[in-house]
Amino acid sequence: MMMPSSIKRIVQTSRRTVGRVRRKALGIISSRFVDLNAVVATDVSVANGTLLTLGGLQSENSRNQVSELWFTSSDGQRFECHMRPIKSFNSRWQATGRLPINVVSLEAKTWTAFAVVGGKTKRITFRAPGGDTLPKTPAVSPDDGTIWSCRAQPGALLLIGEPAPEQLYVDRLTVHMGSIVCHIRASATVSDGEAGLVLRKRKAKAEVRIPLQITDGRGEARIKGENILASDVAAQAGETVVWDVLMEHSARDPYRVRLGLTDIEDPRGVFKYAAVPFHSGSRRRFLRPYWTLDGYLSLEIKGGRHTDVQPEGTGS
Question: Residue 206: which of 238, 177, 184, 235 has the closest Cα?
Answer without folding.
Answer: 235
